[in-house]
């Protein structure tokens, strides 16, 4: 059976060049990077090079990059660190209703255990945050604004430069979760003028379990993981050397291949959307209609009268991997907080599927996907007790 992977925003396959670069760090250069003899020094060199490669991808300096265990850790570190560091200045954080759970659940933790007050900004029907809304929400107690660069479900590319400028005007620190944006759109931290930026390797054809935080030079942030002197004394724990080296290589490939990657993803995404519209009725695009203002590979579609969960499982039966807009937890279907925030009607919110294309997606993959999808949607709609009912 043909296998088609259309879930690049969940994770990406690790590129062969990345794997090849990593392997020696499990075998020859296996030393602890803190050890001052041969294999340790070799491992240390790998870290130094990777730090530069990641810095180059976002226009940072290498001493502004701190490796973490994942994007989630980078997000947690900024929110909890700033809340502790600026305790005397204020207790108010501003974020949005459509952030990843790495941000939202950390904010909820800070509200519950640290007396932090959080404003969750509304977004418009395409998922955009308004700089005016942000400005109106800032008070003299605001210590941090955290707004994602690209939304992981609907692909909205937020106006980070404008939003960061609003925070700066009021002397408030600005963080952006760029896990979905890294390697998918150009990023220049100096131009964006952000203070913190979170990244993750497994979304850019690198390994899982390795992320990084960009921290603008000179900004104070207490440590999150305490222990040894690794990461310039800012993040303890023996380094995941091979993972870091893999992240570095993936970042280099992402930088040199960015234009080609974006063009290919956009072309495949457009073809997928054209085919879906052509072959399947009663569909609705979620997220920005202007494809230049969303993740180049993201397509989020609701299929009326049926459930995304069933579509996903039946596509899997045909060897096709996609994800749904709703998260299945403890046997019940939770409605996506992102789709709810952009007011996708309750009647179709559960019929949502997220397709994300990437470097290995081909036109043939999409032809096959749409062929199977058409049959799946037909079958499910025939079974659906609600097809054509008033209000659908
Ligand atoms: N932030 C966003 C926007 C994401 O999409 C993800 C992962 O899906 C994360 C954070 C978490 O990254 P990681 O999987 O490296 O912890």
Descriptive notes:
The structure is a single chain. With 392 residues, this protein is α/β, with parallel strands linked by helices. The longest helix is centred in the C-terminal third of the chain and has 22 residues, at 258-279. The strands form 4 sheets. It has a 7-stranded mixed β-sheet, with helices on both faces. Strands 9-10-15-12 form a 4-stranded antiparallel β-sheet, with helices on one face. The chain has helices spanning 16-22, 38-58, 71-85, 101-113, 131-137, 160-169, 189-192, 241-256, 258-279, 308-317, 337-341, 363-383, and strands spanning 4-5, 65-68, 92-96, 117-121, 142-146, 173-177, 196-200, 211-215, 283-286, 298-303, 320-321, 323-324, 327-329, 332-334, 352-356. α2 runs parallel beside α8. It contains 12 helices and 15 strands. β13 (327-329) and β14 (332-334) form a beta hairpin. The protein folds into 2 domains: 4-12 and 258-383, Aspartate Aminotransferase, domain 1 (Alpha-Beta Complex); 16-256, 3-Layer(aba) Sandwich (Aspartate Aminotransferase, domain 2), CATH 3.40.640.10. The mean pLDDT is 95. The structure holds pyridoxal-5'-phosphate. The site of pyridoxal-5'-phosphate (PLP) has 13 residues, from α3.
């Amino acid at each position: 059976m043909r296998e088609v992977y259309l879930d690049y925003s969940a994770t990406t396959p690790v590129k062969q060049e990345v794997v090849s670069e990593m392997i020696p760090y499990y075998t020859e250069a296996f030393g602890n990077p803190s050890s001052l003899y041969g294999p340790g020094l070799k491992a240390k060199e790998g870290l130094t090079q990777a730090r530069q490669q990641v810095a180059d991808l976002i226009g940072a300096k290498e001493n502004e990059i701190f490796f973490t265990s994942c994007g989630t850790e980078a997000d947690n570190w900024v929110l909890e660190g700033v809340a502790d560091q600026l305790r005397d200045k204020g207790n108010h954080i501003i974020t949005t209703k459509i952030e990843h759970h790495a941000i939202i659940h950390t904010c909820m933790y800070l509200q519950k255990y640290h007396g932090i007050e959080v404003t969750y900004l509304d977004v418009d029907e395409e998922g955009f945050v308004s700089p005016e809304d942000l400005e109106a929400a800032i008070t003299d107690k605001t210590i941090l604004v955290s707004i994602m660069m690209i939304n992981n479900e609907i692909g909205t590319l937020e106006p980070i430069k404008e939003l960061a400028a609003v925070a700066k005007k009021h002397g408030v620190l600005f963080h952006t979760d760029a896990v979905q944006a890294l390697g998918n759109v150009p990023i220049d931290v100096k131009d964006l003028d952000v203070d913190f930026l979170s990244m993750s390797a497994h979304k850019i054809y690198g390994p899982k379990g390795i992320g990084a935080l960009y921290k603008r030079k000179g900004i104070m942030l207490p440590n999150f993981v305490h222990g040894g002197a690794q990461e310039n004394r800012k993040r303890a724990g023996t380094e995941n050397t091979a993972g870091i080296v893999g992240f570095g290589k993936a970042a280099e490939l992402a930088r040199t291949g960015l234009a080609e990657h974006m063009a290919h993803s956009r072309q495949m995404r457009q073809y997928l959307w054209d085919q879906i519209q052509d072959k399947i009725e009663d569909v609705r695009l979620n997220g920005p209609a202007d494809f230049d203002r969303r993740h180049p590979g993201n397509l989020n579609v609701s299929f009326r009268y049926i459930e995304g969960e069933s579509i996903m499982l039946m596509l899997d039966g045909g060897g096709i991997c996609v994800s749904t807009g709703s998260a299945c937890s403890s046997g019940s279907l939770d409605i996506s907080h992102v789709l709810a925030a952009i007011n996708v009607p309750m009647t179709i919110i559960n019929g949502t599927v997220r397709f994300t294309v990437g470097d290995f997606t081909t036109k043939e993959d999409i032809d096959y996907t749409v062929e199977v999808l058409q049959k799946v949607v037909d079958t499910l709609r025939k079974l659906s007790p609600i097809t054509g009912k008033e209000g659908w």
